[in-house]
User: Fold this.
Amino acid sequence: MAGGFYWKRSTMRAPAPQAAAPAKGGPMGMPVKAGIVRTGAISEDVSAVGTLLANESVMIRPERDGRIAQIHFIEGQLVKQGMKLVSLDASETEAQLAAAKAEATLNRNRLKRAEELKEKSFISAEALDVARENLNQSVARLAEVQSRLEKMTILAPFEGLAGLRQVSPGAYVKAGQDIARLEGIGTLKLDFRVPELYLGRIRPDQQVQVRVDAFLAETFIGAIYAIEPSVDEQTRTVLLRALVPNPGVRLKPGMFARVSLVLGTRENALLVPEQALVPRGNDNFVFRIVEGKATLTKVELGVRRPGEVEITKGLSAGDRIVIDGQLKLKPGAPVKVLSDKPPAAAAK
Assistant:
């Protein structure tokens, strides 16, 4: 003590810091975005590639030698069934037809007179038989010449588009020589193959969707009408043939086609966004929101399509699920569902 004063050490301590109080209403939930399990129609299909073919196709060729007198079609023209396409010079055949007709008429008159004479017993039965046979031969000869004359004119066997001709009027052609191609393309055939795995689910009249590179924005619809009875031993695939309507004849034979064969359609399938899936090993899970908490639920998947997947087991229509933010979630963790509305709309 100095000068009457002395210091006394204080025994008071500084107040200890207080522990943070828990948030009112329990712990904060993990922010997530949620969606609803919806129902909708979904189609199960298989993809393949194929080739478009003309429904009917033939190369126009003459059956007899001759000079082309006239070509009745224009290249690229739509011709009707039975329309004249090419006429060969038939002057010689027409003369032979006239002679055959005259001969048949003469033998017919001879037979009539022979029958009258036989009734009067002026000729024998043998003479009557000869007259009748002569008429039969002349009628057969007339039919032969008539058939040759008909073959001097080539008719369209079906409706279609005439191709590029390879001969000109006045040209001498041999039997079987190419003149032009005729393609029936109002409806096209489509040949494609699918694995034998799907054979039991394929039937006639099954719908196919067709896309071609020339018209990528369009889908053409056809239907199967024939199935090859055997499976290819090398590829283990089966050949299918469909008919595809071709309005405006924009599709052409020989085009490469991408085919989607619809195997079946389910009207009330359960659908969820593909991003909602949580794969773990060989299984798939989805976080359901039950009473504000995340419940990990195992699901079985069906058909996938861009952005969506079908759920065949594990969920029900209307279930609320986590579609974004599930990577940090744990089963049973509380969640806070974020609004999809923009801030301005939410404030309003």
Remarks:
- The domain at 66-88+153-178 is CATH 2.40.50.100 (OB fold (Dihydrolipoamide Acetyltransferase, E2P)).
- The longest helix spans residues 91-119.
